[in-house]
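User: I'm curious what two different proteins look like when written out as structure tokens. Can you demonstrate?

Assistant: Sure. I'll show them one after the other, since each token string lines up with its own sequence. Here's the first protein:
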Amino acid sequence: MVLISILSRKSARKNSLSFLLGFTLTLLALGIAGVYIFHLGGSGGTGKVDGYIDLSLGILCLLAMPLNFRRRKKQDTAEVESEIKALRAFSLGGITMLVNTSTIIIFVSGLQAISSANLEPLDGFFALVLLTLFTLVTLLIPTIIFFAFPKKSEIILASFKAWLSKHKKEIGAAVLLVFGAYLLVKGIRAVF
């Protein structure tokens, strides 16, 4: 939603790329730290550590579902309504990633899978890059539409924003439910 608001403002090209860069760098920093922490914590070993991590992440997914339905202040998009500079767009990208509960939980689950696979460093790096790209798909699609179809993108993105505004809570809850159930089943199988 924040990115689509940025794409509908002045200096959209520069600011959308700055937002995407801030989001991506925050994601990569979390990824590198996460894989390292999981590795230090014993993920990928012969114990039941990975199962307990999956159980914990599954429970977090299910606990985060009610957060999706809470009322949010109009401030989220109202801040973007005013004119912004590239540095502010960059900061918004990083902050948006850090407060995106469902994305963080699912991303951390992917980090744990990378860590538990005991990959060679180069393979682990490529796995992290792929996980990051998959996580960025929801931002890359509107950005690509904007750059590929500059004249038509306003109509396309406005309708997408309206649809997303109407269904974002249900989409978020469904994603959390699916991943939460998957992680719980995976964790229970590993632990018991």
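Here's a second, unrelated protein for contrast:
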Amino acid sequence: MYGTADHAEIFEGVKSMVDKVADELKSKALSYPIALLVSVEIKKDMIEEFLTAIKEDAKGSRLEEGCFRFDVLRDTENANKFKFYEVYTS
């Protein structure tokens, strides 16, 4: 997602993508775990706000039933880039 989206809009976009993939897999009656790798780049002046928000989001996601893992990874070469690695039962 590019542009001027705030963290709430980013998370809603990510949630929408996750829900779409989950619905597609459910419609095919598959019972495999779902792994997602989401990449985002955050504006430099929004990093602190983003870090606060993503820590809470990750904490909540890890408590969800069926969540195997929710990792937040920061790029070592570009501190504005992050990846979320998520694995769910379905």
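A detail about the second structure: The longest helix spans residues 7-27.
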